[in-house]
Amino acid sequence: MAKRRMENGSDTPPTGLQVTAEMPPKLAYTIQEFCEAVGLSKGMIYKEIRAERLKIKKVGARTLVPIEAAQAWMKL
Q1: Residues 30, 62: contact at Cβ < 8 Å?
Q2: CA 35, 20, 69: angle at the middle one, nearest 5?
Q3: pLDDT per residue as tens digits for the range 1-20
Q4: Rounded to two decimals, what is the model's pTM?
């Protein structure tokens, strides 16, 4: 099965997480997934959240980083 081509011209998303043709792209990342994608610790990510530089969504006890918020944060 063919891989999808990303906007940046590569076969992998810019976050470093692999997306296959069978799997739709994620709309949000868990804190752990986001940490792995950007190479920062949970502590550093939570500092960014407290400083209101990284927007999150709470779903029950889960904390999610919407893809739009992740992209906006990367542009800071």
Answers
A1: yes
A2: 35
A3: 455 454 555 555 555 555 55
A4: 0.68
